[in-house]
Amino acid sequence: MKYLSHWLANLTQIVNEMLSEPFLQQLAAVKEKFDRFESGQNAVFRLADFRELSEQLEVLTRVVPTLVHNETNSHMIQLLKNEIGNLTAVMNDLQFTITGNDTENHKLAELRSKLASCEEQYSFHATKDVIKDPFYGASNASTPVQCGEEELYAISEPWTHKWAGTAAALQYGAWFKDPLPPAGTEEKIYYVTHYENIRLLYEHANYDDFVSNRRQVVHTLPYTYEGTGHAIYNGSFYFISYNTATGGRTYGRSRENSGDGTITRWDLKLRKTLASITLPGAGKHNTFHYTVGAFTDIDIEADEKGLWAVYATTAGQGLMDISKLDPNTLAIIHTWNTNRLKRVVGNAFFICGIMYTIDTHNTRSDRVYYTYDTNKGVDSFLAIPLHLKYMLLGQLSYNARERVLFGYDYGHMVTYQLYFKQFTSKK
């Protein structure tokens, strides 16, 4: 057992210089358990402790390819590999002396098999961020943002949940959880791929099914959609129709005339259309799009205050308009005109009735720059850094229940943790 503590000490020293704070805290806690055992403070060595260390070891193994990819110091990487090998050898010897419980050993084998499958499927997209909560802020769902009292001041690095694949059609898309879910749908996850003339919405019952692509439910929409600015809200899917007059098919009509920019509300349980609206004069088919193009002329967003539509019109000279929509009927409640050209904006999201926009879609070091507060009818400028890991961001949407941003970046479905603080008093 003294060898185990020795290798853990060496391993901790090495990864201290390479890994994020959450993982170091987990690793330190495990090491503390083994130190107590070696000193005799804990006379019973539980298989649960063994499994916990095994999980940490698996994580370290997956981190190594990422460190190589990120060109981390080669000497440190080799040391890390050596210490992982030493610890693995000790663990393998220790496994046979801990317990003869066949049931526990069987569970351990299953766990290792599942971890191996995950490593094989996602090793190319490994990340050195190690977190327990897959949505960062999900554990804070019971503490919503205090609108009017708190303000956004920082955004975390992105966390990658799933990669859609290499096909060109999968590079663009959007994914969601319902911020106001009907009972029994709280864990469901939805996504769409591509941005033009597609009518399929994919649904998974929970996060595990989503990341492993199991038990997928497919909704066939009444019309094909365009763009990536769709939303899930209170049991409905709100999407921008590619063409409602022909059920979404162009039948040889030109692109310039095929898209009608209608917002459609599709009930996910009843599987039928409940409402639709065409925004007066709204641009369509890359007339007033975000910088990414991809028919992002209309963007539907949701926050604590309800449902919003962002668009621009020729009459408004391409400046961004914000309309608050009735989520049931889609009737326009009120419209605000901003001073920001839509085509110079990368994307937008809403928190507490405030629209936040980013500069572009393809710069690794982006920022939240321009905001418009519909509560006061005023705009302002910020400089909050935003890291676009894969540099092709087509969707960026806030989820008030999870308190995170959902993003679709070059086929990767990511989230960003948000940090809030009390409003700074202004004299």
Structural commentary:
- With 427 residues, this protein is an alpha+beta fold.
- Helix content is 26%, strand content 33%.
- It has seven helices and 21 strands.
- A hairpin with a 2-residue loop joins strand 11 (299-303) and strand 12 (306-312).
- The termini are far apart.
- Residues 96-102, 119-132 and 246-259 have low confidence and may be disordered.
Describe the structure concisely.
This protein is an alpha+beta fold. The protein has helices spanning 2-15, 21-38, 47-69, 74-98, 102-122, 207-212, 255-258, and strands at 150-155, 159-163, 173-176, 189-193, 196-204, 217-226, 231-233, 236-240, 262-267, 272-278, 299-303, 306-312, 319-325, 332-341, 347-351, 354-358, 365-373, 378-387, 393-399, 404-409, 412-422.
